[in-house]
TrEMBL record, chain A:
Belongs to the binding-protein-dependent transport system permease family. LivHM subfamily. It holds the Pfam family BPD_transp_2. One of its GO terms (molecular function) is L-leucine transmembrane transporter activity. It is found in: Cell membrane. It comes from the Bacteria. The chain crosses the membrane at residues 12-36, 43-61, 67-88, 100-117, 151-170, 191-222, 228-246, 253-271, 277-298. CDD domains: TM_PBP1_LivH_like. It comes from Desulfoplanes formicivorans. One of its GO terms (biological process) is L-isoleucine import across plasma membrane. GO terms for cellular component: plasma membrane. It is a multi-pass membrane protein. This is ABC transporter permease. Signal peptide: none annotated. InterPro entries: ABC_transp_permease (IPR001851), BCAA_transport_permease (IPR052157).
UniProtKB/TrEMBL annotation, chain B:
The keyword Transcription regulation does not apply. Its main location: membrane. The lineage of its organism: Bacteria, Pseudomonadati, Thermodesulfobacteriota, Desulfovibrionia, Desulfovibrionales. Signal peptide: none annotated. It comes from Desulfoplanes formicivorans. It holds the Pfam family BPD_transp_2. This is Branched-chain amino acid ABC transporter permease.
Length: 303, 358
């Protein structure tokens, strides 16, 4: 009994790590721009595909060992995914922001960009599912009756590391201060000589790069890629970010793990078709009790 | 003349469509396009109550469509047809014709009650948090249906075609077409009456400034409840019609993608513009169908111009790349949508002479 609980906890930690990694990107963009970047889940999908192409390229063109390929794929995948995210911002969001369009129009544009990425991928690469090459040998650690693979440990560690890095950037560095300043007052910040566009681009770079990392890890853990894999997990990660309190790094991190735990535990005790139903019902109840999320701060509106 | 022009046009439209369908002037394909136009008009104008007039951002419209579709389908199948699960028909199939509007309304009412599910949280939250609640509600509804094995679960639910046959056997007319037209006209009429009434102005007041509206004695909670329930009830009616047209529904067809389609139609038409919703729904439906023919044609042209490699053909998937692209471009150059918070009569003031649409 205890062993199965521990095993479920490990699985939930891994599953929650993916949610957390994606939710962190959501939160970064939301915190700075107050924009729900609905394309983020699809950027995660693009990240997985980019990792796939980079890895297969290295495997077919060179004779490098698997771990070397992985070491090359991680930074390359992150950089390329960040490029995709930034180009989305450049092409679609920035002109709208310059025009001072209503926030909702930007959200709709983001939603459409996500659809373009999903279906463009499906149209270009076809519906055949790609299977990710195995780069590193699976090592299984057994503690008592609880098994975990080296990959699981790596995923959990990278989520923690990402959280630490982002927390450090946002709270301790100058550019993080600029981010917080923009979310506090978007109109006064340019007057203080802060290059608002640079900061926003940096935000997108950070968020997309970590979405790319999440995509790579996801592809390593579940090596079947399909174009719609980002949609579902993206929506869910976003809901997790909101439950944690969106615009807050700790909230997103915690919310992702919370959703992971809820889903894995539901699957452990109920039929797996109940997963979405129970998970979302719990989240709805949490949102009804604390409308701004667990870590969120209620905003006062001036009249 | 002014008073009767709109009802006259509606009657002409109805009679014309029915005549075309009966004489075989419209084949089934054209008929289905007309039907889907009607359904999309209901969907987009009903979502416009919440997203346009009230200024909220609800993106779970397909959930209520699902509720309406399932409730009216199960009621109809249970009452009038021989079914594996529900057994023999409870009432004689001859009565299906007379009960159809009642069943449709029942679906709408249950969907309106489901609308309370998101109306209650909306008292406290606004904006993005409400968007999340609606998405979550969408997932909750679809996964609830998946877990109900008695109505087919994930396999879907069928048997609604028999109802249509039963109705045609009683009186030989294209009944579903008639009901779609009537529901569409009624929907537009209800929404128009509602938002132009003193009472419905409360919703527009909420869009402008909720706190100020509350101070000026608009009961905002009640207003929100009404707006959500009206919007979701109408969506439920659209869902019921949709189910009877297709004759087969499954929970997967009422997912986020369907909700996104509704959103696209609302923002394409313009927030808070009823004529915009109608125009955009018609355009959207036509665009979907036109692309079905344009894509193979483009494929041929591009192969002829050696722009594409030989082994690659443009598939119908490109439809869903082009439509978002068109919308992104529209947002860049005309973010307020086609009409942008104005009605037809604001564009063509001379039209007012010819009709009074209250």
């Amino acid at each position: 009994m205890l062993a199965s609980i521990l095993q479920n906890i490990i699985n939930a930690l891994q599953w929650g790590s993916f949610y957390s990694l994606i939710a962190l990107g959501y939160t970064l963009v939301y915190g700075v721009l107050l924009l729900i970047n609905f394309a983020h889940g699809d950027i995660f999908m693009v990240g997985a595909y980019i990792a796939f192409f980079v890895a297969t390229f290295f495997l077919s063109m060179t004779t490098l060992p698997g771990w070397m390929v992985l070491a090359l794929t991680i930074p390359l995948g992150m950089i390329l995914t960040a490029l995709v995210g930034v180009s989305l911002e450049r092409i679609a969001y920035r002109p709208l922001r310059r025009k001072g369009a209503h926030r909702l129009y930007v959200v709709i544009t983001a939603l459409m960009c996500g659809l373009v990425l999903e279906n463009g991928n499906l149209a270009l690469l076809g519906a055949s599912r790609k299977s990710f090459p195995e780069l590193i040998d699976k090592v299984v650690y057994t503690v008592g009756t609880v098994t975990m693979t080296n990959l699981k440990v790596a995923v959990i560690l990278s989520a923690l590391l990402t959280f630490a890095i982002l927390q450090f950037i946002v709270t301790k560095t100058k550019i993080g201060m600029a981010m917080r300043a923009i979310s506090y007052d978007k109109f006064a910040v340019p007057l203080m000589g802060i290059p608002i566009d640079t900061v926003i681009v940096f935000t997108f770079v950070l968020g997309s790069a970590f979405a790319g990392l999440a995509g790579l890890l996801f592809a390593l853990s579940y090596p079947i890629l399909d174009p719609y894999m980002g949609a579902m997990i993206g929506w869910k990660a976003f809901i997790a970010a909101v439950v944690g309190g969106i615009g807050d790094i700790r909230g997103a991190f915690f919310g992702g793990f919370l959703l992971g735990f809820v889903e894995i535990l539901v699957v452990a005790f109920f039929p797996s078709t109940y997963r979405d139903l129970i998970a979302f019902s719990i989240l709805l109840v949490i949102l009804c009790i604390k409308p701004t999320g667990l870590f969120g701060v209620a905003k006062t509106t001036k009249i | 003349m002014q008073k009767y022009s709109v009802p006259f046009l509606v009657v002409v439209l109805l009679v014309g469509l029915v005549a075309c369908a009966q004489t075989g002037f419209m084949d089934l394909y054209i008929q289905s396009i007309v039907l889907f136009m009607g359904i999309n008009i209901i969907l987009s104008s009903s979502l416009n109550i919440v997203n346009g007039y009230m200024g909220e951002f609800a993106c779970g419209h397909a959930a209520f469509m699902a509720v309406g579709a399932y409730v009216s389908s199960t009621l109809n199948v249970w009452l009038f047809t021989q079914d594996k699960f529900f057994g023999p028909p409870v009432l004689s199939p001859d009565l299906a014709l007379y009960f159809f509007p009642v069943v449709l309304l029942a679906g709408g009412v249950v969907a309106a009650l489901a609308g309370i599910l998101i109306a209650i949280p909306s008292f406290k939250t606004r904006g993005d948090y409400l968007a999340i609640i609606t998405i979550a509600a969408n997932y909750i509804v679809t996964s609830t249906i998946i877990n109900m094995d008695s109505i087919g679960g994930a396999r879907g639910f069928m048997g609604m075609k028999k109802i249509l046959f039963a109705m045609s056997d009683t009186v030989d007319l294209p009944w579903i077409l008639i009901w779609v037209v009537i529901s569409t006209v009624l929907t537009i009429w209800i929404i128009r009456r509602f938002v132009s009434s003193t009472y419905g102005k409360g919703i527009i007041a909420i869009c402008q400034d909720e706190v100020a509206a509350e101070i000026m004695s608009v009961n905002t909670n009640k207003m929100k409840l009404i707006a959500f329930m009206l919007s979701s009830g109408l969506a439920g009616i659209a869902g019921g019609l949709y189910a009877h047209i297709l004759g087969y529904i499954n929970p997967g067809s009422f997912g986020i993608l369907k909700s996104t389609e509704c959103l696209v139609m609302v923002y394409l038409g313009g927030m808070g513009s009823l004529s915009g919703s109608v125009i955009s729904a018609i355009l959207f439906t036509l665009l979907l169908e036109v692309l079905r023919f344009v894509i193979p044609w483009m494929d041929t042209v591009m192969h002829w111009a050696y722009l594409l490699p030989d082994g690659y053909h443009l598939s119908q998937v490109w439809k869903w790349v082009f439509i978002p692209m068109i919308l992104i471009l529209l947002m860049q150059f005309r973010p307020e949508g086609i009409m942008g918070n104005r009605e037809l009569s604001d564009f063509f003031p001379k039209l007012k002479k010819f009709y009074s649409f209250k």
